[in-house]
Amino acid sequence: MEKIKAIEDEIARTQKNKATMGHLCRLKAQLAKYKRELLLPQAGGGSGKGEGFDVPKSGDIRIGLIGFPSVGKSTLLTNLAGVHSEAAAYEFTTMTCIPGILEYKGAKIQILDLPGIIEGAKDGKGRGRQVITVARTCNLLYIVLDIMKPIDHKRIIERELEGFGIRINKSPPNIVFHKRSKGGINFSTTCPELTYLDADSVKAILQEYKIHNAEVLLKENATADDFIDVVEGNRVYIPAIYCFNKIDQISIEELDIVVKIPHVVPISGTFVAMSNPLIPRVICFPLLLAKVGMQKAWRFAFLFTALLRPGHHRWNFDELLEKSWEYMNLVRVYTKPKGQLADFDAPVILKSEKRTIENFCNSLHRDLIHQFKYALVWGTSCKFSPQRCGKDHVLADEDVVQIVKK
Ligand SMILES: Nc1nc2c(ncn2[C@@H]2O[C@H](COP(=O)(O)OP(=O)(O)OP(=O)(O)O)[C@@H](O)[C@H]2O)c(=O)[nH]1
Ligand SMILES: [K+]
Ligand SMILES: [Mg+2]
User: Fold this and answer.
1) Contact, 101 vs 55, CB < 8 A?
2) Are 240 and 168 in contact (CB under 8 A)?
3) Ligand 1 lined by 249 (C-beta under 6 Å)
4) What SS3 class is residue 207?
5) Ligand (nearest to CA of 316)
6) Which run of H or of E encompasses 363?
7) Mind listing the pLDDT tens digit for each residue in 378-394?
8) Where are the domain boundaries for CATH 3.10.20.30 in the chain?
9) Model pTM?
10) Closest Cα to atom 25, ligand 1: which residue?
11) Can you tell me the distance from the alpha carbon of 270 to that of 245, in angstroms, rounded to the nearest whole number?
């Protein structure tokens, strides 16, 4: 920890220019190495696994709820997935991983409620490591934040996740990297201008890893951190939505600022009547309508009616689900048995990176691909309807497929 701090300080102290680029790159590589050592099971005490955290995967896709204590994660799970996860006003109410299942657009989505994490979680504080280890297995994260708490909490959570090799809302760097047994460092690029790295800084980084023979091809203007991520090789790239919760506690003007932050969905899981200055807001509403114009007024009107309806406990969950659907990038494929209508009630759900006809067959039955002759496909992935396709054909959302066997 001390070494990490010392390197971080040195990076902060060092001026950033062409002359110091190699030195900075070397420091960043050292930092990444020490951080990795810290995360090895034997180094910081206790492995990532723990009792109550080994929840088996089920459903088509997995969402994890990450956040500080008492931001409303359990309340959110209970609201979304219809299972009960204990929620209370004290911190660390949840101690293990609680799964629930939500069905949306025919997909079965596993949602995991997790204990709250605190700053320093990745270094072994609290149950942080177990929590972040589970987070690495998720296909989408809800980073739940309490709107009444300081906004830096967002940055702190991001840092904890980053420190554990999770990259949020980012695609893997477009870098080709192969270790070789001889031939030195072969550096090349297809990018017209590199502003963060060059042959020397790449060599400096690789020296830190004692790699002397490798092929490096930068296909984008990558940073030193991007390149280190590729060399380290154990990073996971996960989309995330920031759920700003307890929106019932803030004013409309504040809400308007929150919605401008990228990847944010404001929500409210419970309505606490006592803490809510509703009456003055209702009086102000007609005035506001005149001031902010029709489009915004609609959104606010929705908020008002939601909050005024007795017993209504959720606000803006529709937007949360729609955005989640977009971020999960799932593809629904309908099966059409020969001579029958397609089954539109039970789509086969494929992930967007694995959506060929072969993937479709495999998710129906393990042996189907061996009997496969060709497929008839109706939908936007084809020019003709139906079109005869082979097993490598890439399917699109809402295609209809009939498999013809040998
Ligand atoms: N006002 C308001 N209170 C909420 C909302 N959602 C949750 N709460 C309250 O916040 C408190 C904490 O909720 P939990 O669901 O237990 O929070 P958690 O994040 O699971 O907490 P830990 O498991 O302890 O980390 C409870 O008293 C909830 O009733 C909301 O949208 N608005
Ligand atoms: K709590
Ligand atoms: Mg909880």
Assistant:
1) no
2) yes
3) yes
4) helix
5) 1
6) helix 357-364
7) 999 999 989 999 999 99
8) 330-405
9) 0.84
10) 69
11) 9
